[in-house]
Specification:
By secondary structure, the protein is α+β, with helices and mostly antiparallel strands. It folds into 2 domains: about 120 residues, N-terminal domain of MutM-like DNA repair proteins; about 120 residues, Orthogonal Bundle (Helicase, Ruva Protein, domain 3). About 25% of the residues lie in helices and about 25% in strands. The protein has a 5-stranded mixed β-sheet, covered by helices on one side. A 4-stranded antiparallel β-sheet has the order 1-7-8-6, with no helix packed on it. A two-stranded parallel sheet has the order 10-11. Strand 7 and strand 8 form a beta hairpin. Keywords: DNA damage, DNA repair, DNA-binding, Glycosidase, Hydrolase, Lyase, Metal-binding, Multifunctional enzyme, Zinc, Zinc-finger. It catalyses: Hydrolysis of DNA containing ring-opened 7-methylguanine residues, releasing 2,6-diamino-4-hydroxy-5-(N-methyl)formamidopyrimidine. It comes from Leptospira ellisii. GO terms for molecular function: 8-oxo-7,8-dihydroguanine DNA N-glycosylase activity; damaged DNA binding; DNA-(apurinic or apyrimidinic site) endonuclease activity; lyase activity; zinc ion binding.
């Protein structure tokens, strides 16, 4: 939390509330998450600076104020709120404007909040190294096929490689592969042209449908909406398509959830992934 569809909706909801609003104060309640690349500006230098824009770049949200940027990479557990009375112990940064208050909370402290100048954005790890934005018009079938053409990565690892595709997280990588009927451990170079095209179409459809669902749900900003997912975190539940028990596998250190019937493994496997029985936990 949040992943790409969540960030799209966050931007949609934050932008009209904050655009043009001037900063009144910045409170750093937990400095562990803060990265001051040029040093935290003194209060008299940022007070009254208006928000000029809010853009998403992959998993980053870039708040551009006059003379200063604040870039937030929420990673796994970052959350946002505009509740002025938000006082939970995991609150890390609070930006008070002449209107709303923006709170950033993170109970694992994995996310990062960067204060810097616009020309220093390339100093943020992975910010400039993002691959093609999978929600942009540049993400065409031909671009996807060229990107995956020579990859020998397992398909799930490929989908989550932000230097290639910007940017799928754990939940939607699982959902894309379920929609495409591809086993998460399948090497990219063993996918047929039709299967590769199917993965591309699944990326577009899963993200579009998820964005529409989360938008319609209109949940509080700090609530993670995941009740629409079909396999993610549904181990031992029945597959919504065939009823087979959903299984979990480890793919390069990440949990992956899949249906062994709808997403059969290719070729002979050391672990019987295609078995419908539920074996002991294995990597």
């Amino acid at each position: 939390m949040p992943e790409l569809p969540d960030l799209v909706i966050l931007r949609e909801r934050l932008l009209p509330e904050l655009l043009g609003k001037k900063i009144r104060s910045i409170e750093i309640l937990d400095p562990i998450v803060v990265r001051n690349l040029t040093g935290m500006p003194p209060e008299d230098s940022y007070k009254d600076l208006p928000l000029l824009s809010l853009e998403r770049r992959g998993p980053f949200l870039n708040f551009t104020f006059e003379k200063m940027n604040m870039v937030i990479h929420p990673m796994l557990s970052g959350r946002f709120s505009m509740d002025p009375k938000y006082k939970k112990k995991d609150l890390c940064v609070r930006i008070a404007t002449e209107g709303p208050v923006l709170n950033y909370a993170d109970d694992t402290r994995m996310g990062k909040v960067y204060f810097l100048k616009n020309e220093e954005l390339d100093q943020i790890p992975k910010y400039k190294e993002q691959g093609v934005d999978i929600l942009s018009g540049e993400f065409t079938l031909s671009v996807f096929l060229k990107t995956i053409e020579k990859s020998r990565q397992q398909i799930r690892a490929f989908l989550m490689d932000q230097s290639k595709l910007s940017a799928l997280g754990n939940a939607y990588a699982d959902e894309v592969l379920f929609a495409a009927k591809i086993h998460p451990k399948t090497p990219c170079n063993r996918l047929s042209p039709g299967e590769k095209s199917g993965v591309y179409e699944s990326i577009r459809k899963v993200l579009t449908d998820s964005i529409e669902y989360i938008r319609a749900k209109n949940a509080p900003l700090d609530v993670k909406v995941r009740d629409h997912v079909k396999v993610r975190n549904r181990k031992n539940e029945p597959c919504p398509d065939c009823g087979t028990t959903i299984r979990r596998a480890n793919v390069l250190g990440y949990d992956s959830f899949f249906c062994p019937v709808c997403q059969p493994a290719k070729g002979e496997q050391f672990i019987p992934w295609n078995s419908q029985e539920n074996p002991p936990e294995v990597n």
